[in-house]
C-alpha cells in the first residue's frame, strides 16, 4: 500500500526518539526509517549496527525516507544513546523478571503526547532482530511496551514493531488536546528543577554501585548483575528529578565520608 501527498508535512516533530540496539541488517534499518516517517517520526539512533554505516541497503529499503537515514546518529552503547533523554520505554514480547510498568503502545503514546507538551524528550528501545533487548538494556527503561497480539503467535519483525508503536504516537499527536499540560496524569515539576536525564541517572547508579562494591555489599560475583539490575529498576521507577539525583548523590557521599568535624 503506497501513497504520499508531497504537499503534506513530512514530520510532526517532537516525537520520541527511536533507538535500535545492535540492528543486524541494513535492510531492516531502512524499513524502520520508512515506518518512522509514515508516522511523523524522524529521530533515529543506532547502537552498534552489525553492518557498516552509512548503508546502501538501508537507503534502498527506506523507499524515500532519506530524511530519517541522513539524520541517524551512531552510538557505542545504550547508555550513550539515551544519555540526554528524560524517559525511556523498552519494547519486548518476552516476560522479564523485573518490576516495571507495562503499557500498550496506545497508553505509552498518551504519555508521550503529554510529555511533549511539557517539553521533555523520550525514547523507545528496540532490540536486535534475533533476540530482542538485553536485560541490562531493559533495566535502564522506565516502562515496558508490549503489543497485545495473538499469544499463540506474536512474532513481529523490527519495522512492524516500530510501525505499531509509531502509529499510536501519530494518532495521539494529531488528536484534539484534552486539556493543559498535567491534566492527563502527567507529573509536573517545580521550575527550579526538571526530570533527570538518563546520563544523570546512570551517574547516580554508578556512584551507588561503586560504593556498594567498596563496602562489600556486591561481593558475590554470581549475584552482582541481578542485584545491580534490581537497584537500577527500583531507582528508575521513582521518576527522579535532576535535583533529587543531586540530593541522593550527596547522601551517598556523606554516608561514605561521615560527618564533617
Look up the CATH topology of the largest domain: Alpha/beta knot
Overall average residue pLDDT: 88
Q: Assembly state here?
A: single chain
Taken in chain order, the helices and strands follow as: EHEHHEHEEHEHEHHHH
* Uncertain stretches: 6-11, 178-186
Going across the biggest sheet, name each strand in turn: 3-2-1-6-4-7-5
Q: β content, as a range?
A: 5-15%
Query: What is the count of structural domains?
Result: 2
Q: Please tell me what the overall shape is.
A: globular
Count of alpha and pi helical runs? 10
CATH superfamily of the largest domain: SPOUT methyltransferase, trefoil knot domain
Structural class: alpha/beta
Distance between the termini: 73 Å
Biggest pleated-sheet summary: 7 strands, parallel
The CATH class assignment of the largest domain is Alpha Beta
- Could you tell me the number of beta strands? 7
Rg over C-alpha atoms, rounded to the nearest angstrom: 20 Å
CATH architecture of the largest domain: 3-Layer(aba) Sandwich
Structure in words:
This protein has 261 residues and is an alpha/beta fold. It folds into 2 domains: 17-174, Alpha/beta knot, CATH 3.40.1280; 198-257. Helices cover 42% and strands 11% of the residues. Strands 3-2-1-6-4-7-5 form a 7-stranded parallel β-sheet. Helix 1 (26-38) links the parallel strand 1 (17-21) and strand 2.
Amino acid at each position: 500500500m503506497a501513497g504520499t501527498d508531497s504537499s503534506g508535512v513530512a514530520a510532526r516533530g517532537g516525537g520520541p526518539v527511536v533507538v535500535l540496539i545492535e540492528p543486524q541488517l541494513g535492510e531492516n534499518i531502512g524499513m524502520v526509517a520508512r515506518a518512522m516517517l509514515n508516522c511523523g517520526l524522524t529521530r533515529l539512533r543506532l547502537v552498534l549496527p552489525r553492518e557498516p554505516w552509512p548503508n546502501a541497503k538501508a537507503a534502498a529499503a527506506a523507499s524515500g525516507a532519506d530524511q530519517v537515514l541522513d539524520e541517524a546518529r551512531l552510538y557505542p552503547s545504550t547508555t550513550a544513546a539515551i544519555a540526554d533523554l528524560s524517559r525511556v520505554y523498552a519494547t519486548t514480547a518476552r516476560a522479564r523478571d523485573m518490576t516495571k510498568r507495562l503499557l500498550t503502545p496506545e497508553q505509552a503514546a498518551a504519555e508521550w503526547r503529554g510529555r511533549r507538551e511539557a517539553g521533555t524528550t523520550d525514547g523507545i528501545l528496540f532490540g536486535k532482530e534475533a533476540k530482542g533487548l538485553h536485560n541490562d538494556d531493559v533495566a535502564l527503561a522506565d516502562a515496558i511496551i508490549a503489543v497485545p497480539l495473538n499469544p499463540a503467535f506474536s512474532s513481529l519483525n523490527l519495522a512492524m514493531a516500530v510501525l505499531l508503536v509509531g502509529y499510536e504516537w501519530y494518532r495521539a499527536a494529531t488528536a484534539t488536546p484534552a486539556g493543559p499540560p498535567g491534566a492527563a496524569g502527567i507529573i509536573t515539576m517545580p521550575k527550579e528543577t526538571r526530570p533527570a536525564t538518563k546520563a544523570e541517572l546512570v551517574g547516580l547508579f554508578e556512584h551507588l554501585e561503586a560504593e556498594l562494591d567498596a563496602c562489600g555489599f556486591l561481593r558475590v560475583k554470581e549475584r552482582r548483575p541481578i542485584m545491580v539490575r534490581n537497584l537500577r529498576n527500583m531507582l528508575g521507577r521513582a521518576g527522579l528529578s535532576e535535583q533529587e539525583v543531586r540530593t541522593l548523590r550527596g547522601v551517598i557521599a556523606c554516608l561514605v565520608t561521615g560527618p564533617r568535624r
